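REVIEWER CHECKLIST
Item 1: Sequence provided? yes
Item 2: Single chain? yes
Item 3: Sequence as submitted:
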Amino acid sequence: MAAHPALDYVGPRLAAERHRRNLTLEQLATSSGISKAHLSRLESGERQPSLAVLLDLAAALAVPVSVLLGEEHDGKAILVTDGSAAGRQVNGLRVISRSGFPASSVLDALEITVEADRPASAPVRHEGEEWLYVVSGALHLEYDGAIHELGEGMSAHFDADRLHRLSATGGPARVLMVSGHHDAQLHLIHR
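Item 4: Structure as written out by the authors:
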């Protein structure tokens, strides 16, 4: 099976950020909760990360998800986007970063399109919180074993450390997601 183009960005960016912080694979595995073997496969491009894994890695490295997706920023303490970002396919989701000034390490805002025919994925969990807002379509949120149907204009805010997954019903769902990381975890990268 051919590698997805997003792998061209994630692997090298992940390795570069890890090296920039002088972290071993083992140290990053400990701080992110992702196995050393899985990290190695991500860096080499053998594996495509899920959105949950991207969020955990971004939190552990104290960078916005957009950095791991290969986006460049100009170094200012503000990021203004014009809505024309290309986005990337990640684990069956179209993801466009809507945040990520260079010093940002606590918050990620993403625009996600969930296609109705997206293959069912395993539920995920990651450090922090998530806030979802349905811009259009209907979103099926499975959270901690319960099903929540969210229509246009509805939102959900939850502890992301509990199992959750998204799917769309009846057509694509466009969702804004804000993910916040517990800053108590950020000290782990400064050893």
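Item 5: Key structural point noted by reviewer: The radius of gyration is 16 Å.
Item 6: Recommendation: ____
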